[in-house]
Write a structure and sequence with these properties.
2 helices; alpha+beta; Asp23 family protein; Alpha-Beta Plaits; 4-stranded mixed beta sheet; globular
């Protein structure tokens, strides 16, 4: 598997987690076919580390990040990047994640 193929699979894993999306740098609204731009710019692959930058569109974060982490570790396992450190960075929180419309706040939060 090449690094570009790995990035394609990681972007697909991000897209599969409802509540996360790849973080795209401001001003990058180019089609997916432009290499290393669009959603692919959210993933950096090196021998020692794989870094993924995501925007959260839902809360709570821990279950979303756990799902993404598990999916990416499964992708990395049979590759030369299996021993690379995985770093997931939440770069932004979409305002929609804070929308409480329809949420039942009548019960106190459990701590």
């Amino acid at each position: 598997m090449t690094a570009d193929e790995l990035i394609d699979r990681i972007v697909a894993a991000i897209d599969a987690v409802d509540g996360l999306r790849p973080t795209v740098p401001a001003g990058v609204a180019l089609p997916d076919w432009v290499p290393r731009l669009g959603p692919h710019s959210a993933v950096d692959v090196a021998a020692e580390a794989v870094e993924i930058r995501v925007t959260a569109t839902a809360l709570p974060l821990p279950p979303l990040l756990d799902r993404l982490s598990a999916a990416v570790k499964e992708i990395l396992a049979p590759t030369p990047w299996a021993a690379a450190r995985l770093r997931i960075v939440v770069t932004d929180l979409d305002a929609g994640a804070l929308d409480t419309t329809g949420r039942d706040d009548s019960r106190p939060a459990v701590s």
